[in-house]
Amino acid sequence: MIEQIAHQEELHLDDYGNLTYLSAVVQNLKLSAQTLAPKLKGRTVWMLNSTARGGGVAEMMPCLIKMLSDLHVRTKWLVMSARDPAFFEVTKRIHNLIHDFGTPGFSARDKSIYQAATREAADSLAKIVDPEDILVIHDPQPLGVGAELKRRIGIRTIWRCHIGLDRHTPATESAWKFLQPHALTVDHAVFSAVEYIPAYLVGKASVIHPAIDPLSHKNRELSAHKLVGILCNAGLMKSHHPVLTPNWDHQALRLNPDGQFLPAHAGGGIGMMFRPVIAQISRWDHLKGWIPLIEGFLKLKKRYRHHKKMTDRHHHRIEISRLVLAGPDPSGIQDDPEGQEVLTALCQAFFKMKPEEQKSVVLLSLPMASIKQNHLLVNVIQRCATVVVQNSLQEGFGLTATEAMWKRIPVMGSSACGLRLQIRDRIDGCLTRNPRDPDEIADILDDMLSNPIQRDLYGRNAQRRVYDHFLVFTQVENWLRVLADTASRARLPAEPF
Length: 497
Hints:
Elements: E1 2-5, H1 13-17, H2 23-36, E2 45-49, H3 56-70, E3 75-80, H4 86-98, H5 108-126, E4 134-138, H6 143-153, E5 156-161, H7 170-183, E6 188-191, E7 205-207, H8 224-233, E8 253-255, E9 261-263, E10 277-281, H9 290-304, H10 312-320, E11 322-328, H11 339-351, H12 355-360, E12 361-366, H13 371-384, E13 387-390, H14 399-406, E14 411-413, H15 417-420, E15 430-431, H16 438-450, H17 452-469, H18 472-487
Parallel strand pairs: 2-3, 2-4, 4-5, 5-6, 6-7, 10-11, 10-13, 11-12, 13-14, 14-15
Antiparallel strand pairs: 1-3, 8-9, 8-12
Helix pairs in contact: 2-18, 3-18, 4-5, 4-7, 5-6, 6-7, 9-16
């Protein structure tokens, strides 16, 4: 099934250009568009993915579509769904195998489930698109839909794959082999890193880095009053004075030792505005390295009690620090059936902790009822953090790291390829060599927390790196080039079916 998403972005490209610190990059984009956009005149660019909320693709889509539209490229957003929940179980396995997680191989039933959802979605999509349009397919879930539609009407297609791994294993080969017949039909493919491009797409693929919108609710600057108001409205902090806006209907919930998820300010609160906070915000995914991060943090907490050379100030800093692990309410993410499973495993790990450890580790479920409120929640958690962590075992590209870097918050990332692309070790932040090693995690966190001057330098360097490489304006310009080049190619005739 296919649903067209009506998005209402508040800002236009000129609103960004009116800001002094963004005017130059906006002007460069407009100059490029003068040459490239006319090549797309008369066509619609359709962006197709598998969810309207949760995850980096859904978050990037509204701004990307709005900016292309402002540059006179007619662009629309479609979301694929499936009647059979097993479809997303299959595509999650593809996702995991591409990241070398899981048992290789797909059954005839897996292929049948994928093809059935593909054909049904293609039936719906064929009623909407024109053969002269361009269809951009995001990630493996709707890839088969693009291939099916190309065979039926000959539409030009681009596959934007946001995931990948910088090495080949039996697991990754299994996933790429499953996708190969569908991927070979596209006119062009786009990846986040050259290392991710499978051999059979070499020569018809290019690289576009994901990017953030600096004025989105997740990334915009927040005044002190606004930040505190959001903390209170979302249940992250108890209000001791009147705040301007009312409490949200759906608040952030914190896991308690009795197993209940309650408003986060209950039981004395988190102390986001007062304590050193180490925060990781991600989907509840096996590949995000949650457990090693918890173990590393608890090792750090144990060390300070026996560290004789530690200064009194740093001793107190470690003593009162807290680890905040936050992710979306799993029920709000349709294309990630493993979310609840991972969150349950983290809850079980929490229940095994000693009472004093449970006080220092905060497990938050962030509501998804309002995307705006969810994004503001992420914004304030990152801005309250002393260090933002992305301890991914594998990561195609970590937008949560990009977001923190833009806010000048020092980041500790893993050595996963997508994070190495962004963070230069000991320049823009710190990278672990082994995200599964709690001792190394503890060592790096200790070093980062003990040196506020170095943290500030990491933050300033990181913001500049995002400005130069990972803002949406650069992404849109790259997309214009790929779209214009694809439009100029001869359209293949449809195949009889």
